[in-house]
Design brief:
The protein is an alpha/beta fold. 48% of the residues lie in helices and 16% in strands. It folds into two domains: 57 residues, no CATH class; 250 residues, Alpha-Beta Barrel (TIM Barrel). The protein is built from 15 helices and twelve strands. Strand 8, helix 13 and strand 9 form a beta-alpha-beta unit. The longest helix is centred in the middle third of the chain and has 20 residues.
Length: 317
């Protein structure tokens, strides 16, 4: 790209003027420009003046989702230094933070419980980030009185999604189905509150099976897709299950994903995305098939790779 820009700068006045004019037209409305004016431009030879690298630049649309991260990665510091932590992540190129409900998670998030949803939203936005999603615990959303209060908090925070952080797994298949009914009820209340409910998996939903079938598959059968969407944790690959396989098998069922990658020789060691075992090209190619609207990088055991992950996504997709 640097060579292409240098070539434009080195052009003579008229040639440079024509080239920049054509580039601006293409960037503003590439399809319209090529469809309505391509014949005239090509016939005049103007199009041939535009460096191929600059023509390709407009084609790189990216993943068309805000680059997000899960706040749990920074649980040891974000409760005490929320602005400083978020500003640092924003400087890496992250745009969206998925919070963990301070009231439900407590522990290192407890210092943030003093803020209303409106106040936490302002702190987030002033730090250069948006927030569209938050994790809530099973306990705080399966009690209707608590859920009403949590929906109010979520609306103040400006959320699009309220994600349950776990709780559907059980010792019997009937109990899993019963909990799915509870989650459907939660989803109905969240929908009436103007948002979408989600469910976040861990490896347990895949490792624990009934008659050879992962509990996760049973959950997908019994959760109402119009009430509850899924947030896929890519870490399931270490149990032998790929996110993109589920995106293809259950199109439209997923609202977001947590992104992890692992060392090929040590599946417990998190590494910079693109250097591990996940096929990210395939993942992003079928993300929209699955229904994804948001992604959140979550390298909770090694925050030092978070900047590298942001660079990988920005430069590769």
């Amino acid at each position: 790209m640097d060579r292409e820009l240098h070539r434009v700068r080195s052009m003579n006045g008229k040639e440079k003027e024509i080239t920049l004019f054509c580039i601006n037209l293409i960037i503003m409305n590439r399809r319209s420009f090529l469809g309505n004016a391509a014949a005239g431009v090509a016939g005049s030879g103007f199009l041939s003046l535009i460096p191929a690298g600059l023509l390709a630049m407009e084609k790189r649309k990216g993943i068309n989702m805000p680059l997000g991260f899960q706040s749990y990665v920074y649980r040891d510091v974000i409760g005490q230094k929320p602005e400083e932590t978020m500003k640092r992540l924003a400087s890496y190129g992250y745009q969206n933070i998925e919070w963990c409900s301070p009231k439900g998670y407590q522990g290192p998030f407890a210092p943030l419980a003093k803020y209303s949803g409106k106040e936490l939203k302002k702190i987030t936005n002033d730090s250069g980030l948006q927030t569209t999603s938050c994790h809530f615990t099973w306990k705080e959303i399966t009690d209707d009185t608590s859920l009403v209060e949590r929906i109010e908090f979520a609306n103040q925070l400006g959320l699009k999604n309220m994600v349950c952080s776990g709780g559907l797994s059980a010792k019997t298949e009937d109990e899993v189905k019963k909990r799915c009914d509870q989650m459907n009820h939660v989803g109905d209340m969240v929908r009436k509150g103007g948002m979408i409910a989600g469910y976040h998996n861990h490896n347990g939903e895949f490792d624990e099976k009934f008659n050879g079938r992962p509990q996760y598959d049973i959950m997908l059968e019994h959760l109402n897709p119009s009430l509850v969407k899924m947030q896929f944790q890519v870490a399931a690959i270490t149990s032998g299950y790929k996110a993109q396989d589920y995106f293809r098998k259950f199109p439209g069922r997923f609202i977001s994903a947590h992104l992890q990658d692992y060392d090929p020789s040590d599946h417990k060691k998190e590494v910079v995305m693109g250097t591990g075992i996940v096929d990210w090209k395939d993942f992003f190619e079928v993300a929209k098939v699955g229904g994804l609207k948001y992604i959140f990088v979550e390298m909770e055991s090694d925050p030092t790779v978070m900047q590298g992950c942001a660079n990988y996504i920005k430069n590769s997709f």
